[in-house]
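[User] Could I get a sequence and structure tokens?

[Assistant]
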Amino acid sequence: MTDTPSGDTADAYPKAVLFDLLTALLDSWTSWNRAAGSEAAGRAWRAAYLRLTYGCGRYIPYEQLVRDAAREVGLAEAAPLALEAGWSNLAPWQGAVDALQALAPHCKLAVVTNCSAHLGRQAAALLPVRWDALVTAEEAGVYKPDPLPYRLALDKLGVAPHEAAFVAGSSYDMFGTAVVGLRTYWHNRIGLPLVSGAQAPAIEAPTLDPLVPWLRRFGRR
């Protein structure tokens, strides 16, 4: 086992890092806002979608929830159609690719995402990394923050919760990761408040810059 340039040993890292895809790694906010016609309309639509997702329990097709949320906030059918049409244009947040490439030699990498299998695969392929596991809500049969999607990813990786970390894009994830026992980094890019009742993350930051240093010390906690 060789030393890293910082002097830390590779076994200081977790065995696996699981990522929320559509908010922690990819800037889906801009896509929702563009499809809705404005930032205000996009945020209202996204908030309605999150409420529907959190409350639906079993998996309901992602595209249906997106359409239902659009109707709830008064958007035309053109908005969800535009969102899906622009899916391949989702852009990684600044620092996302660098963080993934820095972690790849040390950790297994996985995605746990709330969308359909088709859209999940398409979005994950926008990041230049080999994923060791990809779990969508469609595959799990439920949406996060139900514990099942996180546990399914851990099972695929052959890793225990205490040996892994999760990188969230929404504080809704903390409901699930708290139950599973995953230490969580909240990449709170747009400065949202912690959802009422959610457990605070181990670390919260507006960028991914502190992620690799935090994970490098993982095995020493």
Remarks:
- The first strand starts at residue 16 and ends at 19.
